[in-house]
Amino acid sequence: MFRRLSDRASGEVTFTFDGLPVRASAGDSVAAALLAAGVRACRTTPVSGAPRGPYCMMGVCFECLVRIDGMDNRQGCLVPVQEGMRVETQHGARALTTEPAQ
Amino acid sequence: MTEGMVRRGHGIADLADEYDVIVVGAGPAGLSAATMLARFKARTLLVDENQTPGGQIYRAITLAQSADRRRLGEDYWRGRGIAEDFLNSEAEYAPATTAWSIQSVQDDAERIVGQEVGLSSTGMARLIRAKQVVLATGALERPFPIPGWTLPGVMTAGAAQIALKTSGLVPSGKVVIAGTGPLLYLLAAQLIEAGARVSTVLDTTPRENWLRAFRHAPGFLVSPYLAKGLKLLRTVQRRTRVIRWVSELAAEGEGGLREVVWRAGGCEHRLPADLLLLHQGVVPNVNFSNAAGCAHEWDEAQLTFRPQIDEWYGSSVAGLSLAGDGAGIRGAEAAAIQGRIAGLGCASRLGLVAPAERDRLAVPLRRSLARAMRGRRFLDELYRPGKEFRVPQDPDTIVCRCEEISAGQIRTSVSAGAGGPNQMKVFLRCGMGPCQGRLCGLTVTELIADERSKHPCEIGFYRLRFPIKPLRLRELAALPQTQTAKVAVLADLADTHHSADWNERKPQ
Ligand SMILES: Cc1cc2nc3c(=O)[nH]c(=O)nc-3n(C[C@H](O)[C@@H](O)[C@H](O)COP(=O)(O)OP(=O)(O)OC[C@H]3O[C@@H](n4cnc5c(N)ncnc54)[C@H](O)[C@@H]3O)c2cc1C
Ligand code: FES
């Protein structure tokens, strides 16, 4: 889907996506790193379970939601990847551990 | 690169409790406003969600190399000066920081004496006061609700540009670009210059727009848009196939994009595709100004709502100004000038510049602004997206991506009594997902207007509330338990349950 320009590859970072190692460039957002690795869908919807992938890359659509280091609902397009990060597909709704109390 | 370009931003914990001015958004408008304010010695804080300054047009400009200049063009490179001026100023800069609320602070006589802005970054939230706030939150790409637009493999053309600017990623495989708008050919040309092999550009500009635009041709002919536009068109046409007068468009595939289907010249066409990039212009990102209670109006030329502003870019809420494309689409050059005028307005309200001096300084700025806006009317008319691409005719087309609500469901709910966007929330939960209506608001308004044979201005837009982005419990817990803080956060949450809503949603 995407390939990286040779003059733009900077320091290499390794993270995992659903347990598999993925190589990225320092400065990539998680969403960009996944696109570069050929990952199209990064979550399924809470309503119908349909697969979705990044749509806007600028923080407005919330289609890039992933689980990062155990925390659900991170906007992959706004979070820079980091060495050793654990990124996972987000399946439907997130666990009820981190949202505000009623 | 100067020292300034590498200056580090401030972490949220290091920010002061109070500033003269908080500017939200580090695009041309926000950068210019903050630079202007710092010049008048206003204690200024600029916050932006992104890691580096630049906003949309100048995204990642402080990291750009000469190869990026070649690929992205001189208009992009111009952003270096704007970013540099800001980074060399005394203004403080908090990157990777999201602003999620704003609340007026009143004195005992109930006069508004300032604003309290909710900020969060890397898991920490704070409420910071300012006497004046400038929102320069820019635009987003207009929703493009076609069948299949939620399939993985369908993105906006702007999203591909962002991947190119920030990560040097170029679309590969079978790539189709579709839509309309002054930026469509720019985005296509940039991707092509960067080495993307775009198989086809599907131009959805309606034929009749040319007639309507013609009246405004004189302004366009003397504007720089003409030469730039022709150059982009040539680049794209030389390197890829352009199909015009596309009247229907759909993305098809199971679990991901497989084919793009369109209708042109009365025939249906299909093309296998790995990536479909959609774009039909940009519209103001009104979520913040809407939630802040600013008055908005319908802009008929741009088919969108935009906040009302005065000659100093002040909104209807005291102490809150709006500059740049977030206040109405005028383009990047105009955004930078507006930012400076808004900065002058704030500086004057703070008593840092006398009104006469403010007016004198604004004269050349207003002149440049008028020049920068030449030709816009022509572009607005020419690139007005067709109704079939704004108001889905196929009842199965998804309108609200978050809650997966279709055009048919919305039309049926209108008949069942949901006469406006806010009732539609109650009926269908549309607009209540995490994007908070950013990707469906305009479509819902126009669909209801269509169904009720009314004008969108009679239908209105979602009434939005803070926090405009979901917060986490630990961010809330970290907030000081002052009275205002409690009111700001708890009232909002109690009102909307926005953040809770989308989390508790279970698969059905
Ligand atoms: C994806 C995209 C690509 C574009 N590319 C071009 C281009 O190449 N050339 C061109 O001429 N025009 C482009 N535009 C049009 C754009 O609107 C420009 O005219 C210009 O960038 C507008 O400047 P601005 O300062 O008003 O806002 P922007 O440049 O959009 O800057 C707004 C900034 O505010 C930040 N922000 C928004 N909300 C918040 C919040 N709640 N908290 C913290 N920060 C926030 C954003 O992260 C962004 O950095 C593009 C628009 C989009 C949407
Ligand atoms: S891709 Fe749209 S919010 Fe991240």
TrEMBL record, chain A:
Record GO terms (molecular function): iron-sulfur cluster binding; oxidoreductase activity
The entry's keywords: Oxidoreductase
Gene3D superfamilies assigned to the protein according to its UniProt record, in alphabetical order: 2Fe-2S iron-sulphur cluster binding domain, sarcosine oxidase, alpha subunit, N-terminal domain
InterPro entries tied to this protein: 2Fe-2S-bd_N, 2Fe-2S_ferredoxin-like_sf
A Pfam entry, by short name: Fer2_4
Cross-referenced SUPFAM superfamilies: 2Fe-2S ferredoxin-like (SSF54292)
Residue ranges the record marks as coiled coil: none
Protein name (record): (2Fe-2S)-binding protein
From TrEMBL, chain B:
Keyword set includes DNA repair: no
Start and end residues of each FAD/NAD(P)-binding domain: 19-339
Assigned keywords, A-Z: Oxidoreductase
Listed GO MF terms: oxidoreductase activity
Alphabetized InterPro entries for the sequence: BFD-like_2Fe2S-bd_dom, BFD-like_2Fe2S-bd_dom_sf, FAD/NAD-bd_sf, FAD/NAD-binding_dom, Metab_Enz_Cyan_OpOx_G3PDH, Opine_Oxase_asu/HCN_bsu
Ranges where the BFD-like [2Fe-2S]-binding domain occurs: 398-449
Entry keyword annotation includes Ligase: no
Highest taxon in the source lineage: Bacteria
One Pfam family in the UniProt entry: Pyr_redox_2
PANTHER family recorded: ANAEROBIC GLYCEROL-3-PHOSPHATE DEHYDROGENASE SUBUNIT B
UniProt protein name: FAD-dependent oxidoreductase
Organism of provenance: Microvirga makkahensis
